[in-house]
Amino acid sequence: MATITRLPFDTAQFSDFHALQPAIPERTIGGRRQYRTVWISDVHLGTRGCNAEMLIDFLDHVDSETMYLVGDMIDGWAMKKRLYWPATHNDIVWRVLKRAKRGTRIVYIPGNHDEMFRQFSGLHFGGVEILRQAIHETADGRRLLVLHGDEFDAITMSHRWLAHLGDAAYEGMMALNRWLNSVRRLFNLPYWSLSKYAKQKVKNAVSFISKFEEIVAHEAAHRGIHGVIAGHIHKAEMRTIQGVEYYNDGDWVEGCTALVEHYDGTMEILHWADEIAARDAPESGARLEAA
């Protein structure tokens, strides 16, 4: 059993958490996008790498009947080393619990970084249902296994020290990524992920990701269901592997992506940095024209 990580809020008061006022007020946006289901994971609240403002923007623009939180929402590994919890991270918790209060079904499937919540599987906190895994049925009748995926990562399961070493190296890359994007903002350039680019270029990383996807898809085939939805590897993906539908919702550290199901069962990956850039483009053009 994992040791308990002390959180900067009282989990016993989850039911009242929505009554607090967020630091960034929830925006009232007409014509919010409506989806049947939304999947997000690997937010890593409690770390500087978390793109909290971008996720807040997503949550203020998108609604759904069901939302799955597919693990590593809170980074217990990082919080055991140092406490980092800005107001924007509270704002994300507030928005999730507010959705539950409004009637959205929230299903939380803890991952390896927030494994301290796995001991509460089968319970509800503030309207959030905690499960180890789930089966989701799409609007068109497909059954999809939903899990974080760390149970199929040999490094995480068998060589925990190596996983922590890799996590430290990853934190270093994300620090560089934050500095790089702060410079890009000075030149009005959109968000760009250094680590995502590196993963696409490094042969071993690509091989690991491909093997992970195949193993997870094999598990779905073994259970006799149509497909699987995972997180863990921070790479959004939709593809068919040996007749099994494989989906990964990505993350909110590097790629800032979510997986969504439309009301006809169609699945789509939303790249939110691109969505913001497209939304801001007409405003930038209007400002230039006015100038």
Automatic annotation (TrEMBL):
One of its GO terms (biological process) is lipid A biosynthetic process. The keyword Manganese applies. The keyword Metal-binding applies. SUPFAM superfamilies: Metallo-dependent phosphatases. GO terms for cellular component: membrane. Pfam families: Metallophos. Residues 36-235 form the Calcineurin-like phosphoesterase domain. CDD domains: MPP_YbbF-LpxH (cd07398). InterPro entries: Calcineurin-like_PHP, LpxH-like, Metallo-depent_PP-like. GO terms for molecular function: metal ion binding; UDP-2,3-diacylglucosamine hydrolase activity. This is UDP-2,3-diacylglucosamine diphosphatase. It comes from Sphingomonas gei.
